[in-house]
User: Fold Heparinase from Methylocystis echinoides.
Amino acid sequence: MRERMRLAGAFAAKAFARRAATPYHIVRSMVIAPPERLRIAPPDIRTADPTVADEIYAGYFSFAGKTMQSHGGSPFRLTAPSPAWRRALAGFSWLRHLRAADKALAQANARALVEDFLSLKKLGPDDPAMEPAVVARRMLSFFSQSPALLDGAEADFYDAFMVSLAQGARVLWRALATGQAQGGDRLFCAIALAEFAVCADTGRKIAPQVSRTLSLELDRQILPDGGHVSRNPQVAVDLLLDLLPLRQVLAARGLQTPAALMRAMDRMMPTLRMMQHGDGSLGLFNGMGATELDRVANVLANEDTRGAPPLKAPYFGYHRLSGRDALVLVDAGPSPPLEFSRCAHAGCLSFEFSIGVERIVVNCGAPAPPHDDLRDVARATAAHSTLVVDDRSSARIGPKDAGWAAGLVTEGPRHVEAERRDAPEAMGLTLSHDGYARDYGLIHARELTLSTDGDTLSGVDRLLAAEGGGRAGSEPAFAVRFHLHPRVRAAPLGETLALALPTGETVLFAAEGAVPEIEDSIFFAGPAGARKCAQIVLRGKAAPGAELRWTFKRV
Assistant:
Protein backbone atom coordinates (compact mmCIF):
# COMPACT_ATOMS: atom_id res chain seq x y z
CA MET A 1 0.00 0.00 0.00
CA ARG A 2 2.83 2.39 0.87
CA GLU A 3 4.44 1.77 -2.52
CA ARG A 4 1.17 2.38 -4.37
CA MET A 5 0.65 5.66 -2.46
CA ARG A 6 4.16 6.80 -3.33
CA LEU A 7 3.60 6.04 -7.01
CA ALA A 8 0.22 7.78 -6.97
CA GLY A 9 1.84 10.86 -5.44
CA ALA A 10 4.51 10.91 -8.14
CA PHE A 11 1.90 10.69 -10.89
CA ALA A 12 -0.17 13.47 -9.31
CA ALA A 13 2.88 15.75 -9.10
CA LYS A 14 3.67 15.16 -12.76
CA ALA A 15 0.06 15.85 -13.76
CA PHE A 16 0.08 19.16 -11.85
CA ALA A 17 3.35 20.20 -13.51
CA ARG A 18 1.90 19.40 -16.94
CA ARG A 19 -1.21 21.51 -16.35
CA ALA A 20 0.83 24.43 -15.04
CA ALA A 21 3.19 24.42 -18.03
CA THR A 22 0.61 23.91 -20.79
CA PRO A 23 -0.22 27.58 -21.62
CA TYR A 24 3.47 28.48 -21.97
CA HIS A 25 4.20 25.61 -24.33
CA ILE A 26 1.13 26.31 -26.44
CA VAL A 27 2.57 29.77 -27.11
CA ARG A 28 6.07 28.40 -27.72
CA SER A 29 4.79 25.81 -30.18
CA MET A 30 3.36 28.55 -32.40
CA VAL A 31 6.87 29.32 -33.68
CA ILE A 32 6.53 26.18 -35.81
CA ALA A 33 5.30 27.51 -39.15
CA PRO A 34 4.09 25.47 -42.14
CA PRO A 35 7.00 24.73 -44.50
CA GLU A 36 7.11 26.27 -47.92
CA ARG A 37 8.97 23.24 -49.16
CA LEU A 38 10.64 20.07 -47.99
CA ARG A 39 14.39 19.93 -48.42
CA ILE A 40 14.69 16.14 -48.37
CA ALA A 41 12.56 13.02 -47.94
CA PRO A 42 13.77 10.19 -45.71
CA PRO A 43 13.55 6.61 -47.00
CA ASP A 44 11.09 4.13 -45.56
CA ILE A 45 13.08 0.96 -44.94
CA ARG A 46 10.06 -1.14 -44.00
CA THR A 47 9.13 -3.84 -46.49
CA ALA A 48 6.25 -2.91 -48.78
CA ASP A 49 3.71 -5.20 -50.44
CA PRO A 50 2.18 -3.93 -53.72
CA THR A 51 -0.74 -6.35 -53.39
CA VAL A 52 -1.96 -4.35 -50.40
CA ALA A 53 -2.40 -1.41 -52.78
CA ASP A 54 -4.99 -3.42 -54.70
CA GLU A 55 -6.90 -4.18 -51.49
CA ILE A 56 -6.91 -0.51 -50.50
CA TYR A 57 -8.05 0.53 -53.96
CA ALA A 58 -10.95 -1.92 -53.56
CA GLY A 59 -11.83 -0.23 -50.27
CA TYR A 60 -10.53 -2.88 -47.86
CA PHE A 61 -8.49 -1.65 -44.91
CA SER A 62 -6.98 -4.39 -42.74
CA PHE A 63 -5.31 -3.40 -39.49
CA ALA A 64 -4.85 -4.94 -36.06
CA GLY A 65 -6.57 -8.15 -37.10
CA LYS A 66 -9.74 -6.43 -38.36
CA THR A 67 -10.87 -5.62 -41.91
CA MET A 68 -13.29 -2.83 -42.80
CA GLN A 69 -14.66 -1.93 -46.23
CA SER A 70 -15.26 1.72 -47.01
CA HIS A 71 -17.82 0.99 -49.81
CA GLY A 72 -16.56 3.97 -51.78
CA GLY A 73 -16.71 6.31 -48.80
CA SER A 74 -14.05 7.67 -46.52
CA PRO A 75 -12.33 5.08 -44.31
CA PHE A 76 -11.69 7.86 -41.81
CA ARG A 77 -15.42 8.27 -41.20
CA LEU A 78 -16.00 4.59 -40.49
CA THR A 79 -16.72 3.49 -36.95
CA ALA A 80 -13.42 1.87 -36.05
CA PRO A 81 -13.71 -1.74 -34.79
CA SER A 82 -10.99 -1.02 -32.22
CA PRO A 83 -8.71 1.82 -31.10
CA ALA A 84 -5.75 -0.13 -32.51
CA TRP A 85 -7.41 -0.21 -35.95
CA ARG A 86 -8.01 3.55 -35.81
CA ARG A 87 -4.39 4.17 -34.77
CA ALA A 88 -3.06 2.11 -37.67
CA LEU A 89 -5.33 3.83 -40.19
CA ALA A 90 -4.49 7.33 -38.96
CA GLY A 91 -0.78 6.55 -38.78
CA PHE A 92 -0.59 6.14 -42.59
CA SER A 93 2.27 3.65 -42.47
CA TRP A 94 0.31 1.74 -45.13
CA LEU A 95 1.08 4.47 -47.69
CA ARG A 96 4.33 2.67 -48.48
CA HIS A 97 2.34 -0.18 -50.06
CA LEU A 98 0.68 2.25 -52.46
CA ARG A 99 4.01 3.75 -53.40
CA ALA A 100 5.48 0.28 -53.96
CA ALA A 101 2.75 -0.43 -56.53
CA ASP A 102 4.51 2.14 -58.74
CA LYS A 103 1.35 2.92 -60.65
CA ALA A 104 -0.19 6.29 -61.40
CA LEU A 105 -3.51 4.92 -60.13
CA ALA A 106 -1.99 3.91 -56.77
CA GLN A 107 -0.30 7.30 -56.44
CA ALA A 108 -3.56 9.10 -57.15
CA ASN A 109 -5.33 6.85 -54.64
CA ALA A 110 -2.72 7.65 -51.99
CA ARG A 111 -3.10 11.38 -52.53
CA ALA A 112 -6.89 11.15 -52.47
CA LEU A 113 -6.84 9.28 -49.15
CA VAL A 114 -4.45 11.77 -47.57
CA GLU A 115 -6.56 14.65 -48.88
CA ASP A 116 -9.62 12.97 -47.42
CA PHE A 117 -8.00 12.85 -44.00
CA LEU A 118 -6.77 16.43 -44.21
CA SER A 119 -10.28 17.62 -45.01
CA LEU A 120 -11.66 16.29 -41.73
CA LYS A 121 -12.77 18.88 -39.25
CA LYS A 122 -10.82 19.16 -36.02
CA LEU A 123 -10.50 15.76 -34.41
CA GLY A 124 -11.43 15.39 -30.76
CA PRO A 125 -8.75 14.93 -28.11
CA ASP A 126 -10.08 11.44 -27.33
CA ASP A 127 -9.70 10.31 -30.94
CA PRO A 128 -6.84 7.76 -31.13
CA ALA A 129 -5.73 9.58 -34.29
CA MET A 130 -4.61 12.48 -32.10
CA GLU A 131 -2.50 10.48 -29.66
CA PRO A 132 1.09 11.77 -29.78
CA ALA A 133 2.50 8.43 -30.97
CA VAL A 134 -0.05 8.29 -33.81
CA VAL A 135 0.66 11.89 -34.82
CA ALA A 136 4.37 11.04 -34.86
CA ARG A 137 3.79 7.99 -37.06
CA ARG A 138 1.63 10.05 -39.43
CA MET A 139 4.34 12.71 -39.76
CA LEU A 140 7.04 10.13 -40.44
CA SER A 141 4.82 8.46 -43.04
CA PHE A 142 4.04 11.79 -44.72
CA PHE A 143 7.71 12.74 -44.87
CA SER A 144 8.84 9.42 -46.36
CA GLN A 145 6.02 9.33 -48.93
CA SER A 146 6.13 13.05 -49.76
CA PRO A 147 7.86 12.63 -53.18
CA ALA A 148 4.95 10.57 -54.51
CA LEU A 149 2.27 12.60 -52.72
CA LEU A 150 3.52 16.04 -53.79
CA ASP A 151 4.67 15.26 -57.33
CA GLY A 152 2.22 17.12 -59.55
CA ALA A 153 -0.07 17.96 -56.62
CA GLU A 154 -2.40 20.96 -56.85
CA ALA A 155 -1.68 24.02 -54.75
CA ASP A 156 -4.54 23.43 -52.30
CA PHE A 157 -3.38 19.92 -51.47
CA TYR A 158 0.24 21.06 -51.23
CA ASP A 159 -0.66 23.82 -48.76
CA ALA A 160 -2.91 21.56 -46.66
CA PHE A 161 -0.17 18.93 -46.53
CA MET A 162 2.38 21.45 -45.26
CA VAL A 163 -0.05 22.82 -42.70
CA SER A 164 -0.70 19.32 -41.38
CA LEU A 165 3.04 18.78 -40.87
CA ALA A 166 3.31 21.99 -38.85
CA GLN A 167 0.22 21.14 -36.82
CA GLY A 168 1.63 17.70 -36.08
CA ALA A 169 4.95 19.21 -35.00
CA ARG A 170 3.10 21.55 -32.62
CA VAL A 171 1.19 18.63 -31.10
CA LEU A 172 4.43 16.74 -30.52
CA TRP A 173 6.22 19.79 -29.12
CA ARG A 174 3.48 20.27 -26.54
CA ALA A 175 3.25 16.54 -25.80
CA LEU A 176 6.96 16.38 -25.02
CA ALA A 177 7.06 19.64 -23.08
CA THR A 178 4.02 18.95 -20.91
CA GLY A 179 4.57 15.25 -20.31
CA GLN A 180 1.54 14.10 -22.32
CA ALA A 181 3.87 11.73 -24.16
CA GLN A 182 5.11 9.09 -21.74
CA GLY A 183 7.49 6.15 -21.77
CA GLY A 184 8.79 5.01 -25.12
CA ASP A 185 6.42 7.37 -26.93
CA ARG A 186 8.64 10.29 -25.87
CA LEU A 187 11.56 9.04 -27.92
CA PHE A 188 9.30 8.23 -30.86
CA CYS A 189 7.85 11.77 -30.80
CA ALA A 190 11.34 13.27 -30.57
CA ILE A 191 12.39 11.32 -33.70
CA ALA A 192 9.42 12.70 -35.67
CA LEU A 193 10.20 16.24 -34.52
CA ALA A 194 13.83 15.75 -35.50
CA GLU A 195 12.76 14.75 -39.01
CA PHE A 196 10.65 17.92 -39.21
CA ALA A 197 13.68 19.97 -38.17
CA VAL A 198 15.83 18.34 -40.88
CA CYS A 199 13.34 17.95 -43.74
CA ALA A 200 11.18 21.09 -43.50
CA ASP A 201 12.61 24.48 -44.40
CA THR A 202 10.97 26.00 -41.32
CA GLY A 203 12.44 23.37 -39.00
CA ARG A 204 15.68 25.24 -38.35
CA LYS A 205 14.02 27.41 -35.66
CA ILE A 206 13.41 24.39 -33.43
CA ALA A 207 16.41 22.31 -34.53
CA PRO A 208 18.71 23.03 -31.54
CA GLN A 209 16.08 22.26 -28.89
CA VAL A 210 14.80 19.21 -30.77
CA SER A 211 18.34 17.86 -31.04
CA ARG A 212 18.80 18.29 -27.29
CA THR A 213 15.47 16.61 -26.54
CA LEU A 214 16.28 13.69 -28.85
CA SER A 215 19.71 13.26 -27.26
CA LEU A 216 18.27 13.37 -23.74
CA GLU A 217 15.66 10.72 -24.54
CA LEU A 218 18.19 8.48 -26.28
CA ASP A 219 20.53 8.66 -23.30
CA ARG A 220 17.62 8.05 -20.92
CA GLN A 221 16.03 5.15 -22.78
CA ILE A 222 18.91 3.33 -24.50
CA LEU A 223 20.95 1.54 -21.87
CA PRO A 224 24.77 1.37 -21.91
CA ASP A 225 24.66 -2.15 -23.40
CA GLY A 226 22.22 -1.18 -26.17
CA GLY A 227 18.97 -2.50 -24.70
CA HIS A 228 15.86 -0.39 -24.33
CA VAL A 229 14.83 0.48 -20.79
CA SER A 230 11.44 -1.24 -21.33
CA ARG A 231 13.32 -4.57 -21.74
CA ASN A 232 11.12 -5.35 -24.77
CA PRO A 233 13.22 -6.52 -27.77
CA GLN A 234 10.55 -5.26 -30.20
CA VAL A 235 11.11 -1.65 -29.15
CA ALA A 236 14.65 -1.69 -30.54
CA VAL A 237 13.37 -2.87 -33.94
CA ASP A 238 10.70 -0.15 -34.06
CA LEU A 239 13.15 2.58 -33.03
CA LEU A 240 15.86 1.55 -35.48
CA LEU A 241 13.38 1.53 -38.37
CA ASP A 242 12.97 5.26 -37.73
CA LEU A 243 16.44 6.17 -36.45
CA LEU A 244 18.19 4.75 -39.52
CA PRO A 245 16.31 7.02 -41.99
CA LEU A 246 16.94 10.00 -39.69
CA ARG A 247 20.66 9.28 -39.73
CA GLN A 248 20.58 9.05 -43.52
CA VAL A 249 18.88 12.42 -44.03
CA LEU A 250 21.25 14.09 -41.58
CA ALA A 251 24.20 12.75 -43.56
CA ALA A 252 22.62 13.65 -46.91
CA ARG A 253 22.16 17.24 -45.79
CA GLY A 254 25.66 17.45 -44.38
CA LEU A 255 24.38 18.05 -40.86
CA GLN A 256 26.13 16.81 -37.75
CA THR A 257 24.61 13.65 -36.33
CA PRO A 258 24.07 13.98 -32.57
CA ALA A 259 26.62 11.96 -30.64
CA ALA A 260 23.83 10.37 -28.59
CA LEU A 261 22.24 9.07 -31.81
CA MET A 262 25.47 7.47 -32.99
CA ARG A 263 26.12 5.93 -29.57
CA ALA A 264 22.62 4.50 -29.32
CA MET A 265 22.63 2.91 -32.77
CA ASP A 266 26.12 1.46 -32.39
CA ARG A 267 24.98 -0.26 -29.17
CA MET A 268 21.52 -1.34 -30.28
CA MET A 269 22.51 -3.39 -33.33
CA PRO A 270 24.70 -6.00 -31.58
CA THR A 271 22.23 -6.34 -28.70
CA LEU A 272 19.41 -6.95 -31.16
CA ARG A 273 21.42 -9.80 -32.70
CA MET A 274 22.06 -11.15 -29.20
CA MET A 275 18.31 -11.61 -28.76
CA GLN A 276 17.90 -13.65 -31.97
CA HIS A 277 17.34 -17.40 -32.22
CA GLY A 278 18.75 -19.42 -35.09
CA ASP A 279 15.60 -18.85 -37.17
CA GLY A 280 16.00 -15.07 -36.85
CA SER A 281 13.12 -14.59 -34.43
CA LEU A 282 13.61 -12.59 -31.23
CA GLY A 283 13.25 -13.98 -27.73
CA LEU A 284 9.72 -13.73 -26.31
CA PHE A 285 10.32 -11.53 -23.29
CA ASN A 286 8.54 -8.50 -21.84
CA GLY A 287 5.97 -7.77 -24.52
CA MET A 288 7.66 -9.34 -27.54
CA GLY A 289 5.18 -11.00 -29.89
CA ALA A 290 5.59 -12.60 -33.30
CA THR A 291 8.81 -11.43 -34.96
CA GLU A 292 8.39 -9.68 -38.30
CA LEU A 293 11.50 -11.18 -39.81
CA ASP A 294 11.62 -8.79 -42.76
CA ARG A 295 11.78 -5.79 -40.43
CA VAL A 296 14.57 -7.27 -38.35
CA ALA A 297 16.49 -8.13 -41.52
CA ASN A 298 16.03 -4.61 -42.90
CA VAL A 299 17.41 -3.16 -39.68
CA LEU A 300 20.39 -5.47 -39.36
CA ALA A 301 21.29 -4.96 -43.02
CA ASN A 302 22.38 -1.47 -42.00
CA GLU A 303 24.81 -2.63 -39.32
CA ASP A 304 28.25 -1.26 -40.14
CA THR A 305 30.28 -3.95 -38.38
CA ARG A 306 29.19 -7.47 -37.56
CA GLY A 307 30.97 -9.80 -35.16
CA ALA A 308 29.73 -12.55 -32.88
CA PRO A 309 26.62 -11.55 -30.90
CA PRO A 310 27.33 -10.43 -27.33
CA LEU A 311 26.81 -13.05 -24.63
CA LYS A 312 25.42 -10.67 -22.03
CA ALA A 313 23.63 -7.37 -21.68
CA PRO A 314 23.55 -6.82 -17.91
CA TYR A 315 21.81 -3.43 -18.01
CA PHE A 316 19.21 -4.79 -20.43
CA GLY A 317 18.90 -7.83 -18.16
CA TYR A 318 19.52 -10.71 -20.59
CA HIS A 319 22.15 -13.40 -21.07
CA ARG A 320 22.95 -15.76 -23.93
CA LEU A 321 24.42 -19.24 -23.68
CA SER A 322 25.63 -20.88 -26.89
CA GLY A 323 27.16 -24.21 -27.78
CA ARG A 324 27.62 -25.19 -31.40
CA ASP A 325 24.12 -24.71 -32.91
CA ALA A 326 22.30 -24.68 -29.53
CA LEU A 327 21.25 -21.43 -27.91
CA VAL A 328 19.68 -20.33 -24.62
CA LEU A 329 18.30 -16.82 -23.99
CA VAL A 330 17.66 -15.92 -20.36
CA ASP A 331 15.70 -13.13 -18.67
CA ALA A 332 17.95 -12.10 -15.79
CA GLY A 333 16.70 -8.61 -14.99
CA PRO A 334 14.19 -6.87 -12.72
CA SER A 335 10.98 -5.21 -13.87
CA PRO A 336 11.57 -2.03 -15.89
CA PRO A 337 10.89 1.42 -14.40
CA LEU A 338 7.20 2.14 -13.84
CA GLU A 339 6.87 4.52 -16.81
CA PHE A 340 8.18 1.86 -19.20
CA SER A 341 6.43 -1.20 -17.72
CA ARG A 342 3.09 -1.16 -19.54
CA CYS A 343 4.09 -4.14 -21.71
CA ALA A 344 6.45 -5.85 -19.25
CA HIS A 345 5.89 -9.46 -18.22
CA ALA A 346 6.37 -11.28 -14.92
CA GLY A 347 8.87 -13.69 -16.46
CA CYS A 348 11.97 -13.24 -14.31
CA LEU A 349 14.52 -16.09 -14.79
CA SER A 350 12.55 -17.55 -17.70
CA PHE A 351 14.54 -18.91 -20.63
CA GLU A 352 14.15 -19.99 -24.25
CA PHE A 353 16.07 -22.85 -25.85
CA SER A 354 16.65 -23.53 -29.54
CA ILE A 355 18.73 -25.84 -31.68
CA GLY A 356 19.56 -24.54 -35.13
CA VAL A 357 16.43 -23.03 -36.61
CA GLU A 358 14.11 -24.97 -34.32
CA ARG A 359 12.87 -23.35 -31.13
CA ILE A 360 12.18 -25.92 -28.41
CA VAL A 361 11.46 -24.19 -25.10
CA VAL A 362 9.74 -20.82 -25.41
CA ASN A 363 7.72 -18.30 -23.47
CA CYS A 364 4.13 -17.86 -24.62
CA GLY A 365 4.83 -14.35 -25.94
CA ALA A 366 2.53 -11.37 -26.34
CA PRO A 367 -0.72 -11.86 -28.29
CA ALA A 368 -1.55 -9.88 -31.41
CA PRO A 369 -4.13 -7.04 -31.16
CA PRO A 370 -7.17 -9.25 -31.97
CA HIS A 371 -6.45 -11.14 -28.74
CA ASP A 372 -5.86 -8.19 -26.41
CA ASP A 373 -8.23 -9.83 -23.94
CA LEU A 374 -5.54 -12.47 -23.37
CA ARG A 375 -2.74 -10.00 -22.76
CA ASP A 376 -3.00 -10.24 -18.97
CA VAL A 377 -2.76 -14.02 -19.18
CA ALA A 378 0.32 -13.77 -21.38
CA ARG A 379 2.03 -11.42 -18.89
CA ALA A 380 1.65 -13.83 -15.96
CA THR A 381 4.60 -15.85 -14.68
CA ALA A 382 2.77 -19.07 -15.58
CA ALA A 383 3.03 -18.13 -19.27
CA HIS A 384 6.83 -18.27 -19.04
CA SER A 385 9.36 -21.07 -18.81
CA THR A 386 10.29 -20.56 -15.20
CA LEU A 387 9.18 -21.42 -11.68
CA VAL A 388 5.88 -20.12 -10.30
CA VAL A 389 4.76 -20.34 -6.66
CA ASP A 390 1.12 -20.92 -5.77
CA ASP A 391 0.15 -20.03 -9.35
CA ARG A 392 0.87 -16.39 -8.52
CA SER A 393 3.09 -14.12 -10.59
CA SER A 394 6.44 -12.87 -9.34
CA ALA A 395 5.38 -9.30 -10.23
CA ARG A 396 2.18 -7.34 -9.62
CA ILE A 397 0.50 -5.82 -12.68
CA GLY A 398 -2.20 -3.19 -12.23
CA PRO A 399 -5.64 -4.43 -13.40
CA LYS A 400 -7.63 -2.58 -16.04
CA ASP A 401 -9.73 -0.77 -13.42
CA ALA A 402 -6.69 0.46 -11.47
CA GLY A 403 -6.77 3.98 -12.90
CA TRP A 404 -3.27 5.44 -13.33
CA ALA A 405 -1.73 2.05 -12.45
CA ALA A 406 -3.68 0.04 -15.04
CA GLY A 407 -1.30 -2.22 -16.92
CA LEU A 408 1.80 -1.02 -15.04
CA VAL A 409 4.11 -3.27 -13.06
CA THR A 410 3.69 -1.76 -9.61
CA GLU A 411 5.78 -4.33 -7.78
CA GLY A 412 8.25 -6.96 -8.90
CA PRO A 413 11.58 -8.60 -8.12
CA ARG A 414 13.92 -6.00 -6.68
CA HIS A 415 17.07 -8.06 -6.35
CA VAL A 416 17.94 -10.17 -9.37
CA GLU A 417 21.39 -11.73 -9.44
CA ALA A 418 23.16 -13.35 -12.38
CA GLU A 419 26.66 -14.81 -12.41
CA ARG A 420 28.18 -16.36 -15.52
CA ARG A 421 30.32 -19.48 -15.49
CA ASP A 422 32.06 -19.75 -18.85
CA ALA A 423 34.44 -22.71 -19.17
CA PRO A 424 35.88 -24.70 -22.09
CA GLU A 425 33.39 -27.53 -21.61
CA ALA A 426 30.24 -25.47 -20.89
CA MET A 427 28.64 -22.08 -20.38
CA GLY A 428 26.56 -21.55 -17.28
CA LEU A 429 24.52 -19.08 -15.24
CA THR A 430 23.72 -18.92 -11.53
CA LEU A 431 20.58 -16.81 -11.04
CA SER A 432 18.16 -15.74 -8.34
CA HIS A 433 15.27 -13.33 -7.74
CA ASP A 434 13.22 -12.24 -4.72
CA GLY A 435 9.81 -11.86 -6.36
CA TYR A 436 8.30 -14.34 -3.88
CA ALA A 437 10.12 -13.08 -0.80
CA ARG A 438 7.50 -10.72 0.58
CA ASP A 439 4.48 -13.03 0.31
CA TYR A 440 6.09 -16.45 0.76
CA GLY A 441 9.51 -15.84 2.27
CA LEU A 442 11.14 -17.63 -0.68
CA ILE A 443 13.94 -16.90 -3.13
CA HIS A 444 13.91 -18.61 -6.51
CA ALA A 445 17.42 -19.73 -7.45
CA ARG A 446 18.17 -21.27 -10.85
CA GLU A 447 21.26 -22.75 -12.45
CA LEU A 448 21.53 -23.26 -16.21
CA THR A 449 24.40 -25.05 -17.96
CA LEU A 450 24.79 -25.57 -21.72
CA SER A 451 27.55 -27.89 -22.92
CA THR A 452 29.97 -26.54 -25.50
CA ASP A 453 28.91 -29.21 -28.00
CA GLY A 454 25.29 -28.05 -27.62
CA ASP A 455 24.04 -31.53 -26.81
CA THR A 456 22.99 -31.00 -23.19
CA LEU A 457 21.14 -28.25 -21.37
CA SER A 458 20.84 -28.93 -17.65
CA GLY A 459 19.20 -26.92 -14.92
CA VAL A 460 18.56 -26.79 -11.20
CA ASP A 461 15.66 -24.92 -9.62
CA ARG A 462 15.76 -24.27 -5.89
CA LEU A 463 13.70 -22.41 -3.32
CA LEU A 464 15.69 -20.71 -0.58
CA ALA A 465 14.59 -18.95 2.59
CA ALA A 466 14.45 -15.16 2.26
CA GLU A 467 15.69 -13.04 5.13
CA GLY A 468 12.85 -11.06 6.69
CA GLY A 469 10.35 -12.37 4.13
CA GLY A 470 6.72 -13.24 4.72
CA ARG A 471 5.32 -16.69 5.29
CA ALA A 472 2.27 -18.19 3.66
CA GLY A 473 -0.40 -19.52 6.03
CA SER A 474 -0.14 -22.98 4.49
CA GLU A 475 2.59 -24.64 2.47
CA PRO A 476 1.81 -23.74 -1.17
CA ALA A 477 2.78 -25.71 -4.23
CA PHE A 478 5.16 -24.63 -6.96
CA ALA A 479 5.49 -25.56 -10.61
CA VAL A 480 8.41 -25.33 -13.00
CA ARG A 481 7.04 -24.86 -16.51
CA PHE A 482 8.72 -25.45 -19.86
CA HIS A 483 6.45 -24.24 -22.67
CA LEU A 484 7.22 -26.01 -25.94
CA HIS A 485 7.08 -24.46 -29.38
CA PRO A 486 4.04 -25.64 -31.39
CA ARG A 487 6.34 -27.45 -33.84
CA VAL A 488 7.69 -29.69 -31.04
CA ARG A 489 5.84 -32.93 -30.22
CA ALA A 490 6.19 -34.38 -26.71
CA ALA A 491 5.49 -37.99 -25.71
CA PRO A 492 6.32 -40.16 -22.68
CA LEU A 493 9.25 -42.53 -23.05
CA GLY A 494 9.64 -44.54 -19.88
CA GLU A 495 10.58 -42.15 -17.09
CA THR A 496 11.60 -39.47 -19.57
CA LEU A 497 9.86 -37.43 -22.26
CA ALA A 498 10.81 -37.56 -25.93
CA LEU A 499 10.61 -34.28 -27.80
CA ALA A 500 10.41 -34.73 -31.55
CA LEU A 501 11.68 -31.80 -33.64
CA PRO A 502 10.55 -31.10 -37.22
CA THR A 503 14.14 -31.78 -38.37
CA GLY A 504 13.77 -35.41 -37.26
CA GLU A 505 16.02 -34.94 -34.24
CA THR A 506 14.92 -36.08 -30.79
CA VAL A 507 15.62 -34.36 -27.48
CA LEU A 508 15.06 -36.26 -24.25
CA PHE A 509 13.84 -34.49 -21.13
CA ALA A 510 14.53 -36.03 -17.72
CA ALA A 511 13.99 -34.73 -14.19
CA GLU A 512 15.04 -35.58 -10.63
CA GLY A 513 12.73 -34.75 -7.74
CA ALA A 514 9.47 -34.72 -9.69
CA VAL A 515 7.66 -36.63 -12.39
CA PRO A 516 7.38 -34.59 -15.60
CA GLU A 517 3.83 -34.08 -16.84
CA ILE A 518 2.65 -32.93 -20.27
CA GLU A 519 -0.10 -30.32 -20.21
CA ASP A 520 -1.79 -28.06 -22.73
CA SER A 521 -0.50 -24.54 -23.30
CA ILE A 522 -0.95 -21.75 -25.83
CA PHE A 523 1.63 -19.99 -27.97
CA PHE A 524 0.48 -16.41 -28.49
CA ALA A 525 3.32 -15.29 -30.75
CA GLY A 526 2.64 -17.30 -33.90
CA PRO A 527 2.74 -15.33 -37.19
CA ALA A 528 -0.81 -16.52 -37.93
CA GLY A 529 -2.06 -15.89 -34.39
CA ALA A 530 -2.38 -17.94 -31.22
CA ARG A 531 -1.75 -21.68 -31.50
CA LYS A 532 -2.09 -24.62 -29.15
CA CYS A 533 1.12 -26.13 -27.84
CA ALA A 534 2.29 -28.32 -24.97
CA GLN A 535 4.20 -27.63 -21.81
CA ILE A 536 6.26 -29.79 -19.48
CA VAL A 537 5.41 -29.23 -15.81
CA LEU A 538 7.33 -30.28 -12.70
CA ARG A 539 5.56 -29.83 -9.36
CA GLY A 540 6.54 -29.77 -5.72
CA LYS A 541 5.89 -28.21 -2.31
CA ALA A 542 7.07 -24.61 -2.02
CA ALA A 543 9.31 -24.67 1.04
CA PRO A 544 12.91 -23.63 1.70
CA GLY A 545 15.23 -26.37 0.50
CA ALA A 546 12.98 -27.61 -2.32
CA GLU A 547 15.07 -28.59 -5.33
CA LEU A 548 14.45 -30.01 -8.80
CA ARG A 549 17.04 -31.03 -11.39
CA TRP A 550 16.28 -31.45 -15.05
CA THR A 551 18.04 -32.05 -18.35
CA PHE A 552 17.40 -31.64 -22.08
CA LYS A 553 19.69 -34.00 -24.01
CA ARG A 554 19.97 -34.35 -27.75
CA VAL A 555 20.17 -37.96 -28.96
The first strand starts at residue 60 and ends at 63. The chain has a mean pLDDT of 93. The chain has two domains: 2-181, 312-554. Residues 2-29 form the longest helix (28 residues).
